[in-house]
Design a protein that fits this description.
The chain is α+β, with helices and mostly antiparallel strands. It folds into two domains: about 100 residues, Ubiquitin-like (UB roll); about 190 residues, Fumarate Reductase Iron-sulfur Protein, Chain B, domain 2 (Orthogonal Bundle), CATH 1.10.1060. Helices cover about 30% and strands about 10% of the residues. The strands form two sheets. Strands 2-1-5-3-4 form a five-stranded mixed sheet. A two-stranded antiparallel ribbon has the order 6-7. Strand 6 and strand 7 form a beta hairpin. Helix 3 packs antiparallel against helix 6, helix 6 crosses helix 9 and helix 9 packs across helix 10. It is globular, with a radius of gyration of 25 Å. The structure holds iron/sulfur cluster (2 copies) and FE2/S2 (inorganic) cluster (FES). The site of one iron/sulfur cluster (SF4) has 13 residues, from helix 8 and helix 9.
Length: about 350
Amino acid sequence: MGTKRQFRIWRGDENGGDLQDYTVEVNEGEVVLDIIHRLQATDAPDLACRWNCKAGKCGSCSMEINGMPKLGCMTRMSTFTEDETVTVTPLRTFPVIRDLVTDVSFNYEKARETPAFAPPADVAPGDYRMQQVDVERSQEFRKCIECFLCQTVCHVVRDHEENKQAFSGPRYFIRAAELDMHPLDTRTDRKEYAQAEQGLGFCNITKCCTEVCPEHIKITDNGIIPMKERVVDRRYDPLVWLGSKIFRRGETPQTSVTTARQGSATPPGTSRGGTHSHAGGSHDPQAEAQAQSGVNWHREVPHPTAPAVDDRGRLPLTELTFDRAAAPSPFGDDVTFPLPPEHLNFAHPEQDDKH
Ligand code: SF4
Ligand code: SF4
Ligand code: FES
């Protein structure tokens, strides 16, 4: 048998509404979305709420719970005290359709405005090749479930409707960052575009977006700040300015993954040893520090070479029998597993810390 708990839920539509009080049964292990469903089954059959997966993966059940943007299906009732009234309101930044359902088309409009992935014209889709390090680098941003919690919390548009036209928001800054670090993307003006068209300059790095992201994407530290740094490099660094005069702007960085990775021709417009590669660790103090602790995400990765074939186009037998690693490891090639705990960059909490 559950306990009775107090809820205040915003009811209304685009013409207005107010908070209404409900007393609902709450059982052990339930989340806020369970309570919304119970209300729909009992006191409020017409309560509108968007949801799909109930597993934190579809990004539909975004709402504001006690003023904090959260996923209803991932917010446990056990995080509130029994005498606490839980207030549930729709996302504040977007127009209300009804009750907890908002019109998030702002985000789809911004998605449409973001230039799409631009693969090299001379490589067919089946021939695209990326190294694992480059896949891992943008993988963080690909985890986005488009819940738009980061979009609703960002103060640039939360209280300033007038900024919406000029500001795409954190979700689309990480999309731009992801494409900017994609080794096969041939658009070289992602950061200039972010600055000029997406409103990157409006962001003053409050990190609220990072704080609410249910996928724990480091939106500011890994997406926005690196983009801002490179914009500043391009605009204000005199050496980069000079380089941009010699190498025409837009042609400076990359187009060849091999060039960036080998570090043989780091272009003047590129900061931190190459926009499109993790390589070149030996000159990077952070990489040196990581190498000392056993994990070096920036280590120089040998470029793969095709094995030699004989004049009939066949692999020599030794290619099949030779025992060698399939791919280089960011931990180094000479480590044994399991790694000592201090060398891990993620550790499970202690059993005692569960609560
Ligand atoms: S860090 Fe920037 S994008 Fe994120 S919430 Fe703050 S102002 Fe908005
Ligand atoms: S970046 Fe995070 S908070 Fe923003 S839409 Fe994606 S998953 Fe949601
Ligand atoms: S219902 Fe899919 S994220 Fe909550």
